Amino acid sequence: MFDGNEILKTNASNEWWVFYPLTGLSITGPLDSLETPIFGDATIVSKEQADVLLEQIDPDRKTDSKSDLPFVVNYRLPLHTNFHSHLAIRRRGSMPKGHLSSEDSVRSLSSDRARGLAALLTVVFLASSLNGKTCCLEEQVHTGPSRHLLSINFNGPDLTYSSGDVGSWNYDIRIPKDVIHVSRHDVEAIFHQQPYSLLAPIITEQRVPVSSSLKKVLTQAVIRLADAIMSIEGSSQLLGAVTAIEMLLTQSNDKYESNGRRLGALLGKEVLETLDADGVFHSRHMYVHRGLKPERSDVAHRAIMLSMLAIFRYAYLAYEFNQKTALVDYLDFVSLSDRLVSIWEAKGKSVNFMLHERTGFDLPYTTWLVKLFSER
Fold first, then answer.
1. Torsion of the alpha carbons at 78, 49, 95 and 98, rounded to the nearest 10
2. Is the pTM here over 0.70, yes or no?
3. CA distances for 76 relative to 5, 8, 99, 102, 330, angstroms
């Protein structure tokens, strides 16, 4: 079985396909993924499709020109079989025969690409979920924190027990047992929906009018948010989600409160109040500087939602500016104008300097969680 990191090589130009196990997402449809990749130089291949690939080639020799699929297996590194599909990355270059060095350019370049694409899948499928389902690279899957089965009170008049973590937040982000099943068309369709349609081309490295520096910032932020999402501890989720926001908004020699103002300029006062952004930043500050975990168990989820919304809105503005410095300066300008708006209104003037909307996105995941928050 095709059961782990796999590398297939074509006959021409030292072209390689590097396969990374993907958990939580099962791709359906015909075996045409490698011929016409979803992401240009990358695609998603099901376990069954990968098995067919191996059945159609002889792994002990190079295929000839008559082969329908001119690939050979060059290297195999079996991993756990508890995954559902493969994220396949195409790269060109040389590779040591019989083994793979960690410094090898093909592996390192494909690994960076896999992390960015997998992070995009994690964030987008979570944003579009109504129950916390998403997917990720198999290597990111954790078994979860230890949870007790029961607690017994030996000092009471009777033997009593309680099961589970009493008072814990029960709406966990998770890799579902009932896997997300999508076709190639479904993947392409969701990436064309708002608000994903502006972010997806940046992360998938399509030719869009966005500077390389802003592409890099957004890709790093998406990867950091995805890592936070897949963390098993709420404090780690909080830390990672806020760090992703800081990647987008921080300039050198900033004051502590600068990112809060810029986030307000980016998302608007209503979103910050709904998700208690002040509480999120305070909890993160207390955890980093005093080692105190958040008292409220839903803080991590609010942080993830703030980070998610910030990334989607930032992607919109990335098309308007040629570098991060200019974009952040614009947010500072909007923040200052927000503080002066009462003066202008008192003089009967209406001034709008904004290049973006600040109404909230109607994301299934954020809508669902906000409703749950209001019911608690």
1. 40
2. yes
3. 7, 9, 9, 14, 49
**Residue 329 vs residues 244, 315, 321, 334, 350: alpha-carbon distances, Å:** 19, 16, 10, 9, 22
Distance CA(270)–CA(273), nearest Å, equals: 5
Number of residues that this document lists for the chain: 376
> What is the C-alpha separation between 255 and 299, in angstroms, rounded?
23
Tell me what pLDDT residue 65 has.
36
How high is the pLDDT of residue 74? 31
Q: Tell me, letter by letter, the H, E, C secondary structure of 36-79.
A: CCCCCCEEEEEHHHHHHHHHCCCCCCCCCCCCCCCEEEEEEEEC
Average pLDDT across each block of 10 residues of the chain; the chain has 376 residues. List them in order: 48 69 86 75 84 59 38 36 82 59 60 93 93 86 53 46 37 67 92 93 93 96 95 90 96 83 92 92 88 83 94 95 94 86 64 68 80 72
